[in-house]
Known about the structure:
By secondary structure, this protein is α/β, with parallel strands linked by helices.
Amino acid sequence: MSAEIIDGKMVAELLRNRVKEDVQQxxxxxxxxxxxxxxLVGDDPASIVYTGTKTKACQQVGIQTETMVLQDTIxxxxxxxxxxxxxxxxxxxGILVQMPLPSHLSQxxxxxxxxxxxxxxxxxxxxxxRLSLDQPCFKSCTPAGVMELLKYYSIPVKSQYAVxxxxxxxxxxxxxxxxxxxxxxxxxxxxxxxxxxxxLTAHTISADILIVAAGQxxxxxxxxxxxxxxxxxxxxxxxxxxxxxxxYRLVGDVDFESVRKKASWITPVPGGVGPMTVxxxxxxxxxxxxxxxxxx
Length: 296
């Protein structure tokens, strides 16, 4: 047995094309194009790559965007004032502050400063709270992308036992909420594990759906999963490899080659969940422009 591959790159392209069509229809009705304001603090190489990927996707679907690059020495007061200015600018539909931030800046303060109606990342407490209540909101892009993949491949969620390894506010926690709470496509029995979980295998071995976002290369081995499990690998890690042109290769949190022999479905790294995160950001930005979630 070898698992079927969940092709996030292909599904993300379909979703982006759908967003592109919706943006065109929106503009054909006399509306201005959606606008995403990206704020990048500092010159972290990975953050520069991520923001570049997001702005390129915006251009492909017809969303206008600009990246504001700020010095990493900026004060928290100065940054929050900039965000507040974006909040009050009616031409800006979505605001994305690229994470992580320099250590002297409070991530929680920055996120809470963003108007929840423009929080297309889905990180604001208002959106997190409404997610927990299964109310309309901007959903965190990565777990929302995972749900789209499960829907596309008609992978059952209701009444399944889902285990999420990783409890971050951005991925793991909202992922567990979506799996367990969503009425339209959810209602799984869900367990959250993390780096302090004792005997992790005791939990993962029982999972019908195993979602891993721990940030630890090849954490999940074949002996830790049961036959027929659905594997969603959100992790992306750089491993030194001199045989590759860049001097490294990307791997997930799952030992892909061994686990795929037992799984029924599995996401590759790269090309699995990553492209879906960006596609969901495009969808959220269009929703922000339409003001369909939070009508004024």
